[in-house]
Amino acid sequence: MKELFILAIVTTFTLVTYYLVEPFAHANMHAHHESQDFTYNDLPALTKKGDVTRGKDLVMGAGACAGCHSIKVADMPAPMDAVTAAQSYGVNPPDLSNAGAVYDAKFLAALIKNPAHALMLENKYNEKTGKTFPMPQFYGAGGDIDQEIADMVAYLQSIAPKEEELTANEAFETACGRCHAVHYEYNLDDKLHPSWTQIGEKPTFKHKQDELAFETKVLDYQDSLTKYLGKLPPDLSMYIRSRGEHFLSTFAENPDNYLKGTAMPRVGVNAVAAEKVIEHLADVGDSKRHMRDSIGKNVMIFIIIFAIFAILWKKEVWKELH
Amino acid sequence: MAHFTKATSLHDWLNQRLGVDTLNRVLATEYWIPKNINFLWAMGMILAITFGILLISGIFLLMYYQPNVNLAFDSVNYTIMQEVGYGWLWRHVHGVAASVVFLIIYIHMFTGIYYGSYKKGREMIWLSGMLLFVAFSAEAFSGYMLPWGQMSYWAGMVITNLFSGGSLHADGLVEWIRGDYVPAQAYLNRFFMLHVLLIPVAIMGLIGLHFGALRIPHVNNQDGEEIDFDVEAKKYLAGDKANSKVIRFVNDFLSKDMMVVGIYLIFFFYLVFYHFDFAMDPVNFDPADGLKTPTHIYPEWYFLWSYEILRPFSTNVGLIAFAFAQAIFFFLPFLDRSPNAVPASRRGLFKIWFWAMLVDMIVLTAMGKVPPVEPFGTIGFYAALTFIGLWIALPFITMLEKKV
Q1: CA distance B288 to B115
Q2: Is there a single domain that holds both residue A26 and residue A36?
Q3: Left (φ > 0), alpha (ψ -120 to 50) or beta: where does B32 sit?
Q4: Fold of B24-297
Q5: Looking at the structure, do residues A141 and A18 belong to the same domain, yes or no?
Q6: What's this model's pTM, rounded to 2 decimal places?
Q7: Which of A9, A18, A21, A247 would you mutate first to test chain B, the one with the most B CBs within 10 A?
Q8: How far apart are CA B63 and CA B280, in angstroms?
Q9: A243/B270 touch (CB, cutoff 8 Å), yes or no
Q10: What are the pLDDT digits (tens) for A270-303?
Q11: What is the chain B residue with the closest CA to A304?
Q12: Residue-wise pLDDT tens digits, A143-178
């Protein structure tokens, strides 16, 4: 009994110390933001039902999206390569093949109508600063602008992969990959995935010259990006460990939560895509997490059996000592 | 030369050459331990086992770690954590053990203080233990540099800056320690050497000294009773095990140790697999960047109490208070003037002193981590004053103590 009492005291002091040093201290160090479940309540709801065929005409028009964006699934190539595009716009405009699956519909509509507003970059792009966001606003094609935007969103959703078809790394590439590199290779389903650079996966090269040429392109791209954003966005290889799931998800939802006035735009991903982006970062930065869980279970069973035998041995030995 | 006969068995062959029977008797079966002990007496064994875990996991990590400022971070977070089979396991084991070992050290120290196990011939046990504490602290700090993350770099910057001595401006000393103006390649290399060679060797030597220091005064017991070990050992050997006040180190004491170790390992591996974040600060998963100071710089939890003794004061006073905090525990056996080597519960004012010190150090630990804003700044300031005050009061309150 006395030993249990001592154990209770030791445990209590240990837990109090743990509580003060971890949950208590961290609550006092970092602002906490609850997720809004990617509902984007500040953006207007879509009221019109879109028409895919009309949307296709609008999106494919050279004066509209396809003038700058590639749409690989619809065989629409990019007008410029990534490096040149970044030199022109600051960042390479995204391919729109997955846009309908990755971005929230409300957000897409708001983005087409007024990009700087949807991206929460109006503090940087406004009349006072005289800067205009590289992507122009869509002023309508002559009809009801809200209907036209709904049509475009409907078309983008029609060509996008289904929720379950969108892979974690595709979600990442569309949402984050044109600004953030992830230089760690990773294994998934027995396949080695190469490093990710802002201009795409780093290929395997036979000749050093080709590799250097590729790296030069990456550096050129990064230069444009740095000029555009003020700072090269960080490599995200270990972000799942350095930031954690909750921070990543609430940060992507609204970067302003944590970094007021940051150059990083609101990404506008939907809840499913956000989960996939985080899964991808875990695939790269915490690739052994499933193994950790399964081995953990076995080790715990082993140690518990060990402890039981140790207790029985003690009982046996001490029988004649009492 | 000794006389050797033809060996009758391998055991006999070894016995003639190494005296294994004598060794076994002296070190194990007739190394007498008091029977009147509780599970806190197993902390030494837990520490030995945790040190073993650190050593073995460290050897595995050493095979892949690269002490180079350009490679170190990736060699830990990519090569070890993802490419090497079970590398992640060894790293989590090493990181968690490095943190947990301090929890056990503190329990071990406070057990010693509570039961007065640093008095009446046991001073060398306490002093060698304190040397171990210093060596483990240096080992933990140097190891923390190796992943070369943001917290490695900035903790290295802050701690080495302490050696400038405030107004003394001994900047040359700081540069000498770093081998550069800022923590860089020379710095990483020397801390790598300290972590994997010099300090572990010192720790192993000190563990030997610590064990040796126990031999003559013997292990204390939970009532501070003075035991005549020869008489009690005879009683035990004569078969009266139940009435003897002593037990054999092997198997009697060891079986109890292993029971506690078994329960401890459940706790330990639970942390390794399911709750490792407390020991692996997220900030250190960002690579070191000398141009980007983290918002909050704080040491690992086990250094927080002494950090908080430094922080609430002006630079010079803080450094003196910090130096005081680092050294004062060494003097415990000499500041305690009481003739009693019994549990604190029977020592009047010292009982209050003990619990006040424990609570004060927990308050300091908590305040050392939170940002120095109000009311934490004030709480930390008074907790630091309380710490110093308690040590100044110790000789006086123990002098007043009556013999029990």
Answers
A1: 45
A2: no
A3: beta
A4: Cytochrome Bc1 Complex; Chain C (1.20.810)
A5: no
A6: 0.95
A7: A21
A8: 21
A9: no
A10: 999 999 999 999 999 999 999 999 999 999 999 9
A11: B266
A12: 899 999 999 999 999 999 998 999 999 999 999 999
